[in-house]
Amino acid sequence: MSPHHSLHLADFSRDAAKHILDLGRTALAERGLFRLALAGGNTPRVVYEAMARIGAEFPWAKTQITFSDERCVPPDDVDSNYRMAKESLLVPANIPEGNIFRMRGEIDPATAAEEYEARLAAFASRCGEARYVHDVLLLGLGPDGHTASLFPGSPALDESVRNVIPVIGPKPPPQRITFTFPIINAARNVIFLASDESKLPVIEAAQAGDARYPSSRVTSATWLLAF
Ligand code: 6PG
User: What is the chain's mean pLDDT, rounded?
Assistant: First the structure.
């Protein structure tokens, strides 16, 4: 069975939200905590809004939020992935501030990456993990097959030790902080979200292992598609 499988959702935002929350309930039942990494970009917004709406009774106080990547902008900047998540999920679901591991896009990128790495390492150590293990790690996909801020041709694609690094990418804003493939592939469930049908050829190529596309380096994932 392929390590990648696609689900073609009838109601993208509602069905994706339910899928994610169901995995969250499994994590809570098994470990008493739901560790969720949020994807950036535009696609996830409607899914996060649905999660807040459908998950009004979800135990958000037992949910730990990280970010798959962040643009190096202030948290109130229109380009901030944190701002998008705050507006669509963090505030509507009333997720406690202490549960949210924000990447500080407003400071020096290398410093922000190092402090994030240390925060994840401290929690992983308390869990007896060599590397922080997410229950669900959400990702988007760009037309060039990038995911998080891991772009074609970047040396970041080959990072094998660090979980969080600063990068310069072709998608504006260029300066970013991103998860690397080791932490992505350490997650129990990786979920790609895509609602633009024009991405289908790249999705299928990435699922087939086409090395032109960074997303092909994700070893196993469920692809939640709106088409
Ligand atoms: C970012 C995202 C990036 C995004 C894709 C898809 O910070 O830009 O992490 O990887 O998920 O570029 O973006 P859209 O969802 O806007 O198509």
Answer: 98
pTM: 0.98
- Rounded CA separation 144/221 (Å): 18
Q: How many other β-carbons are positioned within 10 Å of the β-carbon of residue 92? A: 16
Tokens 């970047």, residue located: 154
CATH number at residue 158: 3.40.50.1360
Overall number of domains in the chain = 1
Within 8 A by CB and 6+ apart from 209, the residues are 216
Under the banding of pLDDT at 50, 70 and 90, the label for residue 53 is very high
CA 42 to ligand 1 center in whole angstroms: 6
Task: Look at ligand 1, atom 8, and give the residue with the nearest C-alpha.
Answer: 41
**Residue numbers of the domain that contains 108:** 4-225
169 lines ligand 1 (CB under 6 A): no
Instruction: Give the CA distances from residue 192 to residues 76, 111, 158, 227, in Å, rounded to whole numbers and listed in that order.
Output: 25, 28, 21, 13
Cα(1) to centroid(ligand 1), Å: 28
Instruction: Say how far apart CA 179 and CA 14 lie, in whole Å.
Output: 27
Answer whether the bond into residue 166 is a cis peptide, omega within 30°. Answer: no
* pLDDT over threshold 90, residue 2: no
The per-residue b/e assignment along 102-139, b for 16 or more CB within 10 angstroms, e otherwise, is: bbbbbeebeebbbebbebbbebbeeeeeeebbbbbbbb
